[in-house]
């Protein structure tokens, strides 16, 4: 292995047997897609680094039949269901690269080579695939406050729809440095009448939006912050850089997000202004045979149930593509109707 962590010719194993599908990421989107594909008897390799973004979150909410289940437990159940099928294979590793095989004409042959670095004692792998689904979700950057990670997932949350109910009727903070804080504050206000938006001297709220928030009883604090503080395992408030202390019981943080798919950079996929992978209604990217689903696609972070649905929808499209065309009939769309053109 080279000094920058890349695989060299000695480290790189030979390409392994062809897979119908390689799924990168074992969150809700990847697991839902994987379950659908192995039930269709598609030889499917799922690759995951076991480093989920919400590993600190104690409970996930809004996922039907699993409301209140810890996210790690949800992943464990999903993996067990996936691996119960003969066509399933799971690899703990980090994807180093996904490369298109230039002379592969269609889905009847290998169209991609996927290289990984094995983790937790697993070997490096190089596999080939007829199709690839990217379901890696997002990487997030929180405001640079020394102790913010200590409260993230317990007293501070990023998903308003997921955790608003549990934070109801408390003195809450919204901390962020983006230009959409007013919209987030409006959503939070349905659970509390005691909310302060902290911009840390960076986040942008227009004068008109601030007036609208103030009219709803929501305060805006534009001062730079020093830290989020607490005691005895509970958040107690916000320490402002000027020495002031603002008592708060908990709240929400607005991270900055980026698609967690740096391995796909060489593929030159179409992305939006935020770097998220653009897909059509079936989850197809701008490259034939390559799909994406979940938070790594616009609009970005969503509820777990929505991501799972996107993964399941992409799996339907992948399975249909792998069957190949019919000579006399156009393919079915996801609603079961025939498409023209």
TrEMBL record:
Annotated keywords: Flavoprotein, Membrane, Oxidoreductase, Transmembrane, Transmembrane helix
Keyword field contains Oxidoreductase: yes
Domain FAD/NAD(P)-binding: 19-311
Catalysis: reaction(s): [thioredoxin]-dithiol + NADP(+) = [thioredoxin]-disulfide + NADPH + H(+)
Presence of the UniProt keyword Flavoprotein in the record: yes
Residue stretches spanning the membrane: 18-38
Pfam families noted in UniProt: Pyr_redox_2
MF annotations from Gene Ontology: thioredoxin-disulfide reductase (NADPH) activity
Name of the protein described by the UniProt record: Pyridine nucleotide-disulfide oxidoreductase
């Amino acid at each position: 292995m080279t000094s920058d962590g890349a695989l060299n010719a000695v480290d790189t194993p030979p390409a392994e047997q062809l897979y119908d599908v390689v799924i990168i990421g074992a969150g809700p989107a990847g697991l839902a897609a994987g379950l659908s594909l192995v039930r269709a008897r598609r030889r499917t390799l799922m690759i995951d680094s076991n480093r989920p973004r919400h590993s600190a979150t104690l409970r996930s909410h809004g996922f039907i039949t699993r409301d209140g289940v810890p996210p790690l437990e949800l992943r464990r159940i999903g993996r067990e269901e996936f691996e119960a099928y003969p066509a399933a294979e799971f690899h703990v590793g980090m994807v180093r690269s996904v490369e298109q095989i230039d002379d592969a004409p269609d889905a009847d042959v290998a169209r991609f080579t996927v290289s990984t670095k094995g983790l937790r004692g697993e070997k490096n792998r190089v596999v080939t695939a007829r199709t690839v689904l990217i379901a890696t979700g997002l990487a997030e950057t929180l405001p640079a406050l020394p102790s913010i990670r200590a409260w993230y997932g317990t007293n501070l949350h990023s998903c308003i729809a997921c955790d608003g109910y549990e934070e109801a009727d408390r003195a809450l903070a919204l901390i962020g440095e983006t230009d959409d804080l007013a919209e987030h504050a409006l959503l939070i206000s349905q659970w509390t009448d005691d909310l302060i938006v902290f911009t840390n001297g960076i986040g942008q709220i227009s004068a008109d939006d601030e007036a609208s928030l103030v009219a709803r009883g929501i305060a805006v604090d534009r001062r730079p912050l020093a830290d989020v503080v607490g005691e005895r395992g509970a958040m107690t408030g916000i320490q402002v850089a000027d020495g002031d202390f603002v008592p708060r019981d908990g709240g929400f943080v607005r991270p900055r997000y980026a698609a967690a798919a740096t391995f796909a950079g060489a593929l030159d996929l179409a992305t939006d202004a935020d770097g998220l992978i653009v897909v059509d209604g079936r989850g197809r990217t701008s490259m034939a045979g390559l799909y994406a689903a979940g938070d790594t696609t616009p609009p970005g972070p969503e509820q777990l149930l929505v991501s799972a649905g996107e993964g399941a929808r992409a799996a339907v499209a992948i399975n249909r593509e792998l069957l190949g065309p019919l000579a006399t009939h156009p393919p079915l769309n996801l609603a079961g109707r025939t498409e023209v053109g």
